[in-house]
Amino acid sequence: MTSSANAVRRVLTTAVVACAAGLAAACGASAGPAATATATATVTPGSSSGAGGAASPSPDPAGQAQAAPPACATSALQGKVAGPGSSAAQVSTYALSLTNISGASCTLYGFPGVSFVTGVGGWQIGIAATRAEDNATFGSATPRLVTLAPGQTVHAVLQVHDATVYSSGECGMVTAHWLRVYPPNQTAPLYVRFTAHACSTSQVNILTIWPVLPVGAPAP
């Protein structure tokens, strides 16, 4: 082989080796990113990005909802009767007030349970109050949720029918001085001083109770 041929072969060999080395370097550079794991984040409309551009988690509406205050326990309430506010057709209307005497807000929903009793912790006299129904005179008797802040007062309308219009056999009229009041959804009573003629038999019911009304709602 001539010296010129050997020179050409050495040049080609050098070029091939250099190319191979270059290709290897190029392949190594391209393989790096492909082997790196890529983190993905789903951004919910309305969510914002935190530091570094990472998507912050969407707020949980259920978790952000504020729970309503608990039901008012009997021990958190003080009762009082005011009135009569009106009298018509031998029926007198009173306001049975319930005041939150605790240090926390609570809720009332529905009808109090009301009856005449012989005294605090005494026997019931006659029939407990019936629940009012919607009527043209007083309107809706549908209960509404009432929230009582500490010191706040709500009322439930109490109607007392005139016991004197009934015969003694029907009514068995006596004079009562106390009402036993069960706040809505409570099993412990409170007692309110209230003097009225009451029927002691199970034949006549002279009490009608309305649901507790929100603060500022007009009494029937």
Describe the protein's architecture and organization.
The chain has 2 domains: 30 residues; 140 residues, Immunoglobulin-like (Sandwich). It has 3 helices and 11 strands, in the order H-H-E-E-E-E-E-E-E-E-H-E-E-E. The relative contact order is 0.18.
Quick structural summary:
With 220 residues, the chain is of the alpha+beta class. The chain contains three helices and eleven strands; from the N terminus they run H-H-E-E-E-E-E-E-E-E-H-E-E-E. The chain folds into two domains: 1-30; 74-213, Sandwich (Immunoglobulin-like).
Could you name the key traits of this structure?
220 residues; alpha+beta; disordered N terminus; 2 domains; globular; 5-stranded mixed β-sheet; 3 helices; single chain; Immunoglobulin-like
Residues in helix, %: 10-25%
Taking the alpha carbons of the first and last residues, their distance comes to: 126 Å
User: How are the strands ordered across the major sheet?
Assistant: 1-2-8-11-6
Count of the separate structural domains: 2
Output the structural class: alpha+beta
Question: What fold name stands as the CATH topology of the largest domain?
Answer: Immunoglobulin-like
Q: What integer is the average pLDDT?
A: 76
CATH architecture tag of the largest domain: Sandwich
Outline the biggest β-sheet: 5 strands, mixed
Q: Strand fraction band?
A: 25-35%
Beta-strand segment tally: 11
Rg (CA only): 41 Å
Task: Give the overall form.
Answer: globular
Q: What is the highest CATH level, the class of the largest domain?
A: Mainly Beta
Low-confidence stretches: 1-60
